[in-house]
Amino acid sequence: MFGQTFILLGAAGALSLAGQDAAQDPPTQLPPASASAPTPAPPVGLPFPSGAEVLSVDGEALGVLAGVETRPGGERILHIRRTDGSMTAAPASVASRGERAVVLDWTRAEFEATAATAASDSASASPVPPTM
Question: Which of 11, 55, 83, 119 has the most CB within a 10 Å radius?
């Protein structure tokens, strides 16, 4: 009987020590946030920076942003210096600002068609001198 009591006391003591060890372990902590965490994209609504590259929706280079005009009604117009050096305009409503570029929601063909339409509209709107 003495042997059984010793075994029971020994087992109880081992369980008691195991419980104390578990209570003394520090809680597991999450590692600190690293400094190399990815930076978030610029928030929507930030101004379009002059000098930024302008890309088509397909990623083709269309030109460089020369400036942004705000019209009296509040419409913003992007003035883009095309790769051939000519200027064209696009409404800011079809553009978004990426990390390194302004991206239009147009393909190159749509951009070229809009530029051609704008050029013909400005040519027809130019004043014609009166004939005498």
Answer: 55
The three-class DSSP label of residue 9 is helix
Pair 95, 107: CB distance under 8 Å: no
pTM of the entire structure? 0.56
Give the model's pLDDT for residue 83: 86
Under the banding of pLDDT at 50, 70 and 90, the label for residue 9 is very low
Instruction: Please list, in sequence order, all residues whose beta carbon lies within 8 angstroms of the beta carbon of residue 21, skipping any fewer than 6 positions away.
Output: none
Residue 125 CA to residue 28 CA, distance in Å, equals 73
Q: Inform me whether the pLDDT recorded for 117 exceeds 90.
A: no
76-101 in b/e burial notation, b at 16+ Cβ within 10 A?
eebebbbeeeeebebebeebbbeeeb
Residue 121 in any domain: the answer is: no
Please state, in angstroms and rounded to a whole number, the distance separating the CA atoms of residues 22 and 48.
Answer: 58
Domain annotation covers residue 38: no
In which domain, by residue range, is 85 found? 53-113
Contact 66, 79 (CB under 8 A): yes
